[in-house]
Amino acid sequence: MNSSAGGGCRIPRVGMLNPTRRIAHKGRTLTLWEWGDVATQFPHICTLSRLSGGASELAAALHAEILRFGDFAKLSDILLRMQKIALELEEDARTLASASVFHNLMALLNNVRRVDHNGRTIILVTLGALAHDTASANLMTRFGVTQKVIELLTNSQSDDIGGAAWCLSRICRSNELADNILIKPNLIESIVKKGLLSDVPRTSRLSAWLLGGLVRTDAHADAMAASGLIQISVDNLVRKTSSPNIVPEDICAATYLVARLSRSIKLSKLLARAGCVRQLANSLQTSVDPDVLNWSARAIGCLMRPNSLDLANILLEAGSAEGLARLPRVLPDDEVEPLVSFAFTIQRFVCAEWGGGTRKILVEAGVIDSLLSALRSASDVPAPHVHIELVRAISFLCDIGGGEVRKEIVRAGGVEILREVAESAQPEVAKVCDIAVTSVTGKIWSRHVGG
To answer: Binning pLDDT at 50, 70 and 90, where does residue 2 land?
Structure first.
């Protein structure tokens, strides 16, 4: 959303909210769908491959083994190795995402006599691993992979559903692909009944990620709402947050779906009316899991839009401000990614009301102190995107919060903290810090922070 308000202040964007955690590690970016995470999702099929070799050798080995009509145990070894290298190295994923490999995998997937349920799951996870960008996803669609995965989702009664949901969530990488997928008859109903409402936690979790990932535009969200997904998604969130035996990722997936559906004030109000607010606020107030805190804060921010004071009040009455103030205090030192959602939600609260009531509640809850403390602590971690969002939150509070909020930031040492961060930060971070200092001191609005 590129709209602006209040003299040109940039409205904080929701972003695509993909189910990924982007973390700088050893000079590269890791995502949620790494090999270790896939092994966690599918422990029954992700045993360690005995094979070595690169992408080209594996593609050739797969083709040769299929021609031999060899034992599937050998084929599964090849596929497991493919999954691992495709998820670890993008260059290998590009090599493997070829017409010949997709042709061979489709031949295996269609050979029901040769492949049992576990075998199909191995193939589906491999296909999902190879869908590493839009080009590979489009190629899969042209080869009929997407249609085949949808058939498995709508027709299967087995564990294929979890693998198919994961694969389809990887394929859905553009609005066009989402459009083509969503028009399939009975697809959403099948994903909900067989996937989201499944008694198998992994299947339910992966189906929630898929449904959320399919919401890429307002029209997609409206189509989901028309299918009854508003109440279903909130009921799913309530079940997950109320169960004592649920793992954090189940809560994250359920929260992600709610966040993705809140594409408009109308849908946000329907989600709030369905009962999501208390669950989200409670997660912020009680959880110590970084991912649960991350998605709960993000979902609360997504529920708000500019001039949505009624929604902001509902969220504040549920204790969201206190939960936000708590978030940085309970994060481990090396977990800074949830601070992006923390900052995003502060920005959304500020834009929800142009009067002073919301900011007053945020100040009284201790959000400003937590925000400044988070910026100082996070400055030691090489994560400039986190620093920039925290500084933007400070700027939003100053621009719209008025003189009293600026005085509170100055009293809490905000100017000194911003200057300290700017001294040792990368140029793009130093720039937004300098503009924020100017905004705190009341000389100019930071309407151009971050461009």
So the answer is: very low
Q: What is the pLDDT of residues 34-82, one digit of tens each?
A: 434 555 565 554 454 445 568 899 999 999 988 887 677 888 889 988 9
d(CA 431, CA 181): 43
CA distances from 201 to 176, 198, 208 (A): 30, 7, 11
CATH of 275-451, one of 1.25.10.10, 2.60.40.3140, 3.30.70.260, 3.30.930.10: 1.25.10.10
Which residues are paired to 5 by β-bridges?
9
> What pLDDT shows up at residue 356?
74
With a cut of 80, say whether residue 7 has pLDDT above it: no
Mean pLDDT of all residues in 349-376 = 89
Q: What is the mean pLDDT of residues 24-42?
A: 41
Q: Do domains 30-183 and 275-451 have the same CATH topology?
A: yes
How far is residue 414's CA from residue 376's CA, in Å, rounded to a whole number?
A: 10
Indicate the residue type of 192.
Answer: V
Q: How far is CA 304 from the centre of its chain?
A: 18
Is the pLDDT higher at 115 or at 144? 144
Please name the fold of domain 30-183.
Leucine-rich Repeat Variant (1.25.10)
Task: Kindly report each contact of residues 218-225 with a partner whose C-beta sits within 8 Å and lies 24 or more positions away, as own/partner.
Answer: 218/263, 218/264, 220/178, 220/179, 220/182, 220/263, 221/260, 221/261, 221/262, 221/263, 221/264, 221/267, 222/263, 222/267, 223/182, 223/188, 224/188, 224/261, 225/261, 225/267, 225/270
Distance CA 53, CA 409 (A): 57
What is the chain's length?
Answer: 451
Residues 280 and 299: their CA atoms lie apart, in Å, by: 8
pLDDT of residue 327: 98
How far is C-alpha 240 from the chain's CA centre? 17
Q: What percent of the chain has pLDDT over 90?
A: 62
Instruction: Answer whether residue 24 shows pLDDT above 70.
Output: no
SS3 content of the chain, % helix, strand, coil (to 5): 70, 0, 30
What tokens were used for 185? 């008859």
Rounded Cα distance, 378 and 350, in Å: 22
∠ CA 295-219-143 to the nearest 5 degrees? 90
Residue 400 has pLDDT above 80, yes or no: no
Q: What is the pTM of this model?
A: 0.87
Angle at 446 between CA 440 and CA 450, to 5 degrees: 125
Dump the DSSP string for 143-172: TTHHHHHHHHHHH--STHHHHHHHHHHHH-
Q: Which candidate, 189, 188, 208, places its Cα nearest to that of 200?
A: 208
Domain ranges (residues) in the chain: 30-183, 190-261, 275-451
Give the chain's mean pLDDT. Answer: 85
